[in-house]
Design a protein that fits this description.
The chain is built from 22 helices and 14 strands. By secondary structure, it is an alpha+beta fold. It folds into five domains: about 70 residues, no CATH class; about 60 residues; about 170 residues, 2-Layer Sandwich (Nucleotidyltransferase, domain 5); about 70 residues, no CATH class; about 80 residues, no CATH class. Strand 9 and strand 10 form a beta hairpin. The longest helix has 15 residues. The protein is elongated, with a radius of gyration of 44 Å.
């Protein structure tokens, strides 16, 4: 009523709709809507006549009765009231008023604005709306019981290493009982950074709480669920290592972790704004000092004005569970599909896995410099960490497809030793200049053992050396022709020849 009285006062004094809009900050469409009954009644702005508030109040009530009696808005919105039970059901299912207005327009053909629906809901469902807004104080938390975790944006910072502006985020963990806070600025929000910040927080507190309430980030929670959330595998391994329970907050319910939500603006204002940092480590060291010297010593109204550091030292520090004897080794998990070359990608590197897993999805676990590939819960392969490139174990291929790759120069030399000294000489000559370049020829020579005995191969190698043509093709040709012993001295014998004249004496064609 007060706003409408002011609107008509300006109009009565002769001001235009543009001037009224600028003076009162009301949209011109809204002004036309409320001036329409007066203009339709033939009323005009007065020329110096006094503005009678009582008269205008009666006129406004007659034109807009819901202004005087808000309960009449349900009556003046018959199109909405028809769907009263449906709206009640939507509110019970936690559907927002904006969505209800959209569904009224799209699904039920009701030409009504969102503001009208909001007014209707506020009056017709006042008790239900109040119930949804009601909050219940959580009360005190047992010392050492709970820590709340969240990320918050600090701002932009010029990174001198990359020579560009980057976004800086604040990882924050607060102990729910003492309000003792740990803050660590980071540039990335991935699995490694998430777990590393948790480890740094536990080191700062000198112990671990029983439970961690976190947001539903993918690096922490893969599938949000009120009753059975699926925790990220790396985060679950971290929790098992420190014996803490991960209790994710409900999706889009910041009130589930209010003690970490509220300090974020204070962190940005007190720690970040107006300060200059030269590096990320210097920024992180400054954050630790700020947590101890500034936030830890300020009077906190949530704990009766006591500084968090004082309450932490007196009541909570001793209740935290002790840290394990060694620090948690950061773990990263990847899920990938095994390609036809028996390799799966993790990061920027490729790792081989047994050929039977081709086409299947496997989990790759990286911890320190060790990479493990899991088929379900079983380790299918283990590799040393590579930043780039390939790590291949030929045993992961089918045997008949890797036989050639396994025949190294050393293996060929061992085979030549078994064949004979001339084969050793041939292999040595071929590998003298470039063993890898002549590896195929060497493999071919020792591979002749499949079809020929060792003494023939050794003799063929000897003849190839004699003629000065040491090649695989030459040695194989000698064996095929059976000439590996030509040119060799006849073996000595003591037998008496049966024909002293020789076979020429029996040549009947010569007529002798």
């Amino acid at each position: 009523m007060t706003d409408l009285m002011e609107l008509f006062r300006h109009w009565h004094s002769g001001r235009s709709q543009v001037q009224i809009s600028a003076a009162l900050g009301i949209d011109r469409k809204t002004i036309r809507k409320y001036l329409a009954p007066a203009i339709a009644a033939g009323m005009m702005p007065s020329n110096g006549e006094r503005f009678d508030e009582q008269v205008w109040r009666e006129l406004i009530v007659s034109w807009f009765p819901e202004v005087a009696d808000p309960t009449m808005r349900a009556v003046t919105r018959p199109a909405i009231a028809v769907h009263h039970e449906w709206i009640h059901q939507q509110l019970d299912e936690s559907v927002t008023v904006a969505t209800i207005a959209q569904r009224l327009r799209d699904d039920h053909g009701v030409d009504v604005s969102e503001s009208s629906v909001r007014r209707y809901v506020a009056t017709a469902f006042a008790e239900q709306v109040a119930e949804r807004k009601a909050t219940v104080p959580r009360g005190a938390v047992t010392p050492g019981e709970e820590a709340q975790v969240d990320y918050g944006k600090l701002g932009m910072w010029h990174d001198p290493v990359a020579d560009r502006r980057v976004t800086v985020w604040a990882f924050a963990m607060i102990l729910a009982c003492s309000r003792m806070l740990f803050v660590q600025p980071v540039l990335r929000m991935d699995q490694s950074s998430w777990c590393a910040s948790h480890v740094a927080a536990f080191d700062y507190f000198g112990g671990t709480p029983t439970r961690i309430v976190c947001d539903n980030l993918k690096i922490g929670v893969e599938r949000p669920d009120l009753y059975d959330p699926k925790i990220n595998r790396a985060y679950a391994e971290f929790a098992a290592f420190y014996d803490v329970v991960i209790d994710p907050a409900r999706a889009r319910k910041p009130k589930d972790k209010p003690r970490i939500e509220r300090p974020m603006p204070y962190i940005r204002d007190s720690f970040w704004r107006g300060r200059t940092f030269t590096s990320v480590p210097q920024m992180q060291d400054a954050a630790v000092v700020w947590c101890t010297e500034v936030y830890g010593r300020h009077s906190h109204r949530g704990i009766d004005g006591m500084p968090p550091m004082e309450l932490f030292t007196k009541a909570e520090q001793s209740t935290l569970k002790p840290l394990p004897p060694r620090r948690f080794e950061h773990v990263v998990y990847h899920v990938g599909k095994v390609a036809a070359d028996c390799h799966v990608k993790a990061g920027k590197a490729l790792y081989s896995v047994p050929w039977r897993l081709i086409g299947q999805r496997v989990t790759v676990r990286t911890a320190g410099d060790i990479v493990q590939i899991f088929d379900g819960d079983e380790v299918a392969a283990t590799h040393v960490l590579h930043l780039t490139g390939r790590s291949t174990n030929f045993e992961h291929y089918p045997p008949h497809k890797v036989a050639h790759a396994l025949q190294t120069v050393s293996w060929c030399r061992r085979q030549a030793d078994e064949i004979g000294p001339d084969a050793v000489a041939v292999v040595a000559e071929l590998s003298e200049l470039n063993a890898l370049h002549r590896l195929r020829a060497i493999q071919g020579i020792v591979g002749l053992r499949k079809n020929y005995p060792d003494h023939r191969i050794n003799a063929a190698c000897h003849r190839a050396v004699q003629v000065g043509d040491v090649q695989y093709r030459t040695i194989k040709g000698i064996l095929v022709a059976g000439t590996e012993n030509e040119g060799a001295p006849a073996p000595a014998t003591t037998a008496t020849p049966a024909l002293l004249r020789g076979p020429q004496a029996f040549d009947t064609a010569s007529g002798q």
